[in-house]
Amino acid sequence: MHGLRVIGIVLVLQYHVTQSLVLVFINQGASALVERCGWSMAAVWPLSLVALIGGSLVLAYVMHIVIEKPSLRVRDRVAG
Questions:
Q1: Model pLDDT, residue 15
Q2: 38-57 burial by CB neighbour count: b if 16+ within 10 A, else e?
């Protein structure tokens, strides 16, 4: 039962790490577009939102393959 709790914690952390990493990079990119390139916030905000959603999906999928799949195999082995 302890192993299943650890796997649950890992999956929750996976979600938060994904969101945090993507937000950091999107924030830096949006700031550079507004300050250095002179883009309008009206254009940068929707682009940032699209980039956040796309980046989160890509990073979440990579973490799913690298972290979640092996964890599920361990869970099945422990439960079975």
A1: 67
A2: eeeeeebeeebeebbeebbe
Please tell me the predicted confidence (pLDDT) of residue 14.
Answer: 67
Decide: residue 18, CB within 10 A, 0-12 exposed, 13-18 middle, 19+ buried.
Answer: buried
pTM, 2 dp: 0.61
Confidence of residue 38 (pLDDT cuts 50, 70, 90): very high
- How many other β-carbons are positioned within 10 Å of the β-carbon of residue 64? 15
Q: Give yes or no for residue 16 having a pLDDT over 80.
A: no
Residue 64 CB-half CA count within 13 A: 6
10 Å Cβ neighbour count for 30? 19
* Phi, psi of 43, rounded to the nearest 5 degrees: -90, -35
Measured in whole angstroms, the distance separating CA 12 from the mean position of its chain's CA atoms is 11
